[in-house]
Description:
The structure is a single chain. By secondary structure, the protein is mainly beta. The chain is 0% helix and 51% strand. The chain is globular, with a radius of gyration of 13 Å.
Amino acid sequence: QVQPVESGGGLVQAGGSLRLSCEASGGRRNTVAWFRRTPGKEREFVAAVKLSGGFKYYGDSVKGRFTLSWDNAKNTVFLQMDSLKSEDTGIYYCAASQTIITSSIRTSSAYSSWGQGTQVTVSS
């Protein structure tokens, strides 16, 4: 079973950048995603990548500001977050799935493996 482990969270000023890392080793995974829980909101889809084809998906609220990349040799997916806003504050979770259909890629319940989360705080 894949066990994602997040790192890279922290405190940053609005307009700044952070890079989160998700090491997803220990099993097969074809899709790695990021979700976040922000104050007063349900868990929200941020971004996902299908590693087999390199297809990337982004949530509307982060499109154009966040970028996914990965290092296969290190089993690690990166989330580069630029132009951060105060509303990006929250706990960011990495999730992985061995088999997921594209129509479910934005659905948290479709993922079987989750990390513990990493806190991102953007000060205004």
